[in-house]
Amino acid sequence: MTTTTSKATAALPRGEELLHDPLLNKGTAFTPAERRALGLSGLLPPHVHRLDEQVARVMDNYRNKQTDLERYIHLVSLQDRNETLFYRVVVDHIEEMMPIIYTPTVGQACQQWGHLFRRPRGLYVSWEDRGNVESLLRNWPHADVRVIVVTDGERILGLGDQGVGGMGIPVGKLSLYTACAGIDPAHTLPVMLDVGTENEGYLRDPLYMGLRQKRIRGAPYDAFVAEFIEAAARIFPEAIIQFEDFGNQNAFRLLEQWRERVCTFNDDIQGTAAVALAGIYSALRLTGKKLREQRILFLGAGEAGIGIGDLIVSAMMDEGATCEEARQQCFFVDSHGLVSKSRTGLAEHKLRFAHDVPPATDFHAALEAIRPTAIVGVSTVPRSFDQRVIEAMSRWNERPIVFALSNPTSKSECTAEDAYRWSEGRAIYASGSPFPPCQLNGKTFVPGQGNNSYIFPGVGLGVVACRARLVTDRMFAAAARTLASLVLPSDLEMGRIYPSLTRIREVSAHIGTAVAEVAYKDGLARAPRPADLAAAVRNTMWDPVYRTYA
């Protein structure tokens, strides 16, 4: 716990102003001495509460809420008042809080953003601000930004275009950076690039808070994004910029355009890929097979699917396969059927996985033709892994690997219970959103959640700790291997192929160390290498405890 000097105390805001600063406010935890020194006497009830007592009060109110959306609003309101207490609550109850502050509940919040709005959080940069973006960024009150999450709101989770309501995603992601990996909240910046929306419902909604226009496309859009990125890199030169929930037509192009120029990555492409690869590594501990022996069929050929495929190819090459051999083990089904060489008009990002295979117009036909060892759903088409699919996978594989990764829960390709029941308990299952434990034939199965929060916070932590210049695929591969190595035998025994979320800060520290190690080996780290890298990474992590002011 850090104790400030009297000079630093004198520089703090006082009275009501201090109580309204969420980064500094302690509420009823201010001591009598602090209250006297900071002009708070009489502004608070007389009893001084410990942080754990405040947590108990929050949880008492939280559990009296009737819906998850009400719980989300309760927590966001707390975050607006007292960030330390908010993060103490989240860290101490991470499994309970994760589905509320992020998927699936954050999706509901995005859909109702203009109706739920209470207090602005983050930076809104609109198309009307073009030519003036740098001055907007300079309005941000915190100079030492280390992590920026930016979206344009076009492809929010599996919900589509949410326009300016997409701001809920950067806010939620950065909450996870802090809760899961200890990134100081004062060093984070959520950004919404508002270029319009194609969502007619929002354009007609009088409470919609964004630009009332169709989306800007093409060269003007690219120039606007470039203005933002270049300005952010100048003003916050230590920051990592995470692209989040951009549409397919922009996501791949923007990543390729900027990944070698600034410290950036796309979580929907690279983070999802790493958490999926980690799940497959864990599943192979149960099957006893090698990665390069797997035939993997994807339902969905967008950002997530192609990103996973690319990282799997890279990992297979590490096992000795050639690039072409590895690609021949990955197959994709999109809305028009199996991706194959015989099809015309394929998007560029699909071409490398277009194989010389007979055409198949739907997933069931492709499944019969490919007979995969693993299926990965990233389609946002609910219930597309039906009984026929799971039973077929179970005929060909003693332990079929079934990943239904689409978010939110309503978009999942199948539930955990269905996968276990239809496979007679043999499926190795993971989902994108949480599902409860299942009982089958006297055994309890605990499904793994392939949540990107296992990956991106730790990657960000490693980049921040070593001040890396770029984020690379080698870092994500290292993150995937590290995550898989942290799955305990007891986890695997109950069917869980990811560590318990209660260990998430430990997991993030290990991943951060592995990422920093890659940065040092590849000459990308700007910070001098410490004697004990793991300890240095851990020491970077912010802990939600109160400072002493007087």
Description:
Strands 8-7-6-9-10-11-14 form a 7-stranded mixed β-sheet, sandwiched between helices. Strands 1-3-2-4-5 form a 5-stranded parallel β-sheet, with helices on both faces. The two termini are 13 Å apart. The N terminus is likely disordered. The protein has 3 domains: 94 residues, Up-down Bundle (Hemocyanin, N-terminal domain); 144 residues, Malic enzyme, N-terminal domain (Rossmann fold), CATH 3.40.50; 279 residues, NAD(P)-binding Rossmann-like Domain (Rossmann fold), CATH 3.40.50.720. The protein is an alpha/beta fold and 550 residues long. The chain contains 25 helices and 14 strands.
Biggest beta sheet attributes: 7 strands, mixed
Low-confidence stretches: 1-5
Which fold name corresponds to the CATH topology of the largest domain?
Answer: Rossmann fold
β-strand percent reads: 5-15%
Looking at this structure, what is the CATH superfamily of the largest domain?
NAD(P)-binding Rossmann-like Domain
Termini Cα gap:
13 Å
Average pLDDT across residues? 95
Structural class, judged by helices and strands?
Answer: alpha/beta
> How many helical stretches?
25
- Please indicate the count of domains: 3
